[in-house]
Amino acid sequence: MGAARDILHLNVADFAVEVERLVDSRLKTRPVIIAPEGAARAAVFDHSEEAFQAGVRKGMALKRALRYCKDAVVLPPHPDRYERAMREMLGRALPYSPLIEQTDTQGHLFVDLSGTSRLHGPPQDVGWRIRKTLHKDVGFLPIWTVAPNKLLAKVASRLVKPTGERIVTSGEESRLLRPLPLHMIPGLEASDVFRLRDFNLRRVGEATQLTPAQLDVIFGKRAATIHNLLRGMDDSPVLPVDERRPRIIADHDFGNDTNDLHRIEGALYALVEEACADVRKRGMAAKRMGLWLDYSDGKRMHRTRIIKPPSANDFTLFEVAQDLLHKAWMRRVRIRHMRLRLDRLSYPTPPQLDLFEDIRKEQNDKHELVATLDAIRDRFGTDAVRMGRTISGDGRKINHFKVLGSLSPDPNTHPPASRP
Question: What average pLDDT is seen over the chain?
């Protein structure tokens, strides 16, 4: 057990909506939905508390959201505004600690206040002070919580949302977590929640009755991670404000340049499969995917996409990767090299358990299949089971890749080595 820590979590609920309300005060009491304009399959990017109470959820199809909340004001996202607002939040927190982690551009900050009491007073005083400063200077009224680690601070924020504060002291972990439904725990993936539900375990207190041996049977190598999450144990540090978050980068060199769709999609699936496995081992989910194609004439095409909700599921992310491939593959020239990047890693979004039965079953099947594949590969090796699309006509694996961590070169400034 490490030294006691004091982690402050700041969270502006419905951040994008709050930023838009600062721009236009007429939106203050109206239901608001943030979604792309003119997109045939637009999904909800953010929503106000009023829209939430009407049944709107992030990631929901805009058409469906408007059926639930017909009087909502629909606005397009303005990422530049949200980035500026995050810089304002960061600037108000910086005087109190150099260890400030910005997990996204949606109004979340972790601040490590361990050992700063003699300079700035108790952590709860710092939380009040930053909240007051943000309200006065920017107009935000953030939730703030203080806890011994990031996981507990995040859970406490979810409990007091959309407004409020909470202090979690060391030793209070069990009392805080035991009554909660499993999907409230950051780091538990949808597959974990569904698997525990198979044993009729729906709350943290019920799941903590499982012994380490039983968890090992259910989750394999992930058992220790599940054990710690259910008990509020989290040693992950608050990263310094200027430290880049980990990125997963996977490369494939085709050897012989190709424009064969089966071969290219097979290699792409292998990259997605290996990168997702790495993300799952970290207990994280990816919020963004990037795909780079290098052609035989030296040209490069690049496309990126935000993943909503964040995911580490092979099948879900392969659909995203296929879409990026079709958008980046705009030339008839053969492809020489392909690179996939997953970044903006974060805790998985709590799974939506109130979906229609057919949608819920489809999601459950995807997560169960990935969990089963992981268990088989953990026990018998990564080549014990393979997807057919990753095998060439002669039965050989068609992929050759490497997965890199946070020290990976930036693909925009360090092009991958091409074939001689």
Answer: 83
391 secondary structure, DSSP code: B
Query: Per-residue pLDDT tens for 63-83?
Result: 999 999 999 999 998 988 998
Task: Give me the helix-helix angle, 357-380 and 314-328, nearest 10°.
Answer: 100
Q: How far is CA 379 from the centre of its chain?
A: 27
Mean pLDDT value across residues 147-168: 92
Residue 195 has pLDDT above 90, yes or no: no
Phi-psi region of 127 (alpha: psi -120 to 50; beta: other; left: phi over 0): alpha
At 124 the three-state DSSP class reads: helix
pLDDT given for residue 244 in this prediction = 65
Q: In what order do the strands lie in the sheet with 7-11?
A: 100-102, 108-112, 7-11, 143-147, 165-167
Number of H helices, E strands in the chain: 15, 13
Among 310, 364, 363, 362, smallest CA distance to 195 is for 364
Non-local (6+) Cβ contacts of 319 within 8 A are none
* pLDDT attached to residue 222: 80
Instruction: Give the separation between CA 52 and CA 69, rounded to whole angstroms.
Output: 9
pLDDT score recorded for residue 279: 86
Residue carrying structure tokens 């496309």 = 303
Query: Which run of H or of E encompasses 326?
Result: helix 314-328
Residue 245's closest CA among 95, 100, 416, 45? 100
94 three-state secondary structure: helix
Neighbours of 326 (CB within 10 A): 10
The per-residue pLDDT for range 120-145, each reduced to its tens digit, is 999 999 999 999 999 999 999 999 99
- Judging by beta carbons within 10 Å of its beta carbon (0-12, 13-18, 19+), is residue 413 exposed, middle or buried? exposed
Which residues have CB under 8 Å from 159's CB, separation 6+?
A: 166, 180, 184
Dihedral angle at the C-alpha atoms of 366, 367, 370, 374, nearest 10 degrees? -170
Which H or E run contains 145?
strand 143-147
E strands, 152-267, are: 165-167, 248-258
Strand partners, 343: 288
In this prediction, residue 208 has a pLDDT band, given cuts at 50, 70 and 90, of very high
Q: Are 229 and 318 in contact (CB under 8 A)?
A: no
Asked if pLDDT for residue 397 goes beyond 80, the answer is no
CA atoms of 34 and 45, how far apart (whole Å): 5
